[in-house]
Amino acid sequence: MRRFPAEWEPQSGVMLTWPHEDTDWADQLDRVERLYADLAALIGRYEPVLNVCRHPEHAAAVRARLAAAGADPERQRFGLAPSNDTWARDHGPIGVRTHAGEPLLLDFRFNGWGGKFAADHDDRITETLSEGGLFGETPLEPVDLVLEGGAVETDGRGTLLAVTRTLVDPRRNPGLTRETIEQMLAERLGIHHVLWLEHGAISGDDTDGHIDTLVRFCAPDTLCYARCSDPTDADFDALQAMERELRALRDPQGNPYRLVPLPTPAPVLDDDGERLPAGYANFLLINGAVLVPTYDTLADAEALDTLGQLFPERAVLPVDCRPLIRQGGSLHCISMQLTQGVLS
Fold first, then answer.
1. Full-prediction pTM beyond 0.90?
2. To pair with 230 at 20 to 30 A between CA atoms, which of 4, 141, 268, 284?
3. What is the arithmetic mean of pLDDT over 237-264?
4. Ramachandran region of residue 122, left (φ > 0), alpha (ψ -120 to 50) or beta?
5. What is the 8-class DSSP label of residue 258?
6. In Å, how far are 99, 159, 236, 257 from 253, measured between CA atoms?
């Protein structure tokens, strides 16, 4: 029986796919590369970082960025693969443990969130890295199912949480019913209890409602979630409907979950006045720390305090994610943890 580990379990590293001049980051490339370098240096204090670069010249430039940021070179690894974009959460490998406890990487399909954006290079990144030996002896298993890492949350005990429309979607998985997808999740991920949500979204999100922007497991019995208490907010109705759904969820033993709300930051707007997808559920758990996206709003402090109480044994470290949300995602979206045993 396979098991899909929770994010709070031991990791062997975190994967970052770096931006470059042929991505949508081109008009703010220097700013976002500085964020990536600082983030890689920060993660490197706790565990290795796999930096995915498009070619050797790109890797050399990334090394220089990391050195300038004070990153420990012993914790920085490099892989080469062409890329369309940088959302490693959605094109990176998903790790499981086999019945023998060994790591196994799954290579699900990625089609740019239902064909919204080009993804031909991104869909091949995991296979390219595996062929290049970046995952050591860990086997890679291709899966003919479009599944983005940001679309699924697990408690590490066989329960999975997802928003239905991000998996049961004719643009992602034409012809597949919810029941068929549940069967595939059971076979590939060892999932035996699926919690489907029909509501929930934040403004500016291109993913149709990835769960990692909305609700996260913090323990097998605890969910933290994006909550909106302002009836004039554009996201109020959807998040209120989601909150009602969360109250009705039950674990495999029939118990309700402990629900912990996260605040909604004040709206962060782009240059055209459009709202960007700022939210605190997009935090990243690494060995010994929780990295929390911040947006220079008053709600930042409350979010840091709440997550500190949920993860009292971890350092709580803010990461200014204002550059990231200009392209529709945040901290968790650009990163993918690699389960223990994948990176040597």
1. yes
2. 284
3. 98
4. alpha
5. E
6. 23, 11, 31, 11
Closest CA to 109 of 145, 74, 135, 76: 145
pLDDT > 80? residue 344:
no
Q: Which residue shows structure tokens 């559920």?
A: 281
Task: Name residue, tokens 């029909």.
Answer: 198
Region label for 292, one of left (φ > 0), alpha (ψ between -120 and 50) or beta (otherwise): beta
Which residues, listed in sequence order, are joined to residue 250 by a DSSP beta bridge? 256
List phi, psi (to 5°) of 75. -100, 0
Q: How far apart are CA 80 and CA 134, in angstroms?
A: 9
Question: What's the order of all strands across the beta sheet hosting 76-80?
Answer: 76-80, 49-53, 11-17, 335-339
Which residue matches tokens 């997009």?
Answer: 282
Could you give the domains of the chain? 11-339 (3.75.10.10)
Summarised one tens digit per residue, pLDDT across range 172-198 is 999 999 999 999 999 999 999 999 999
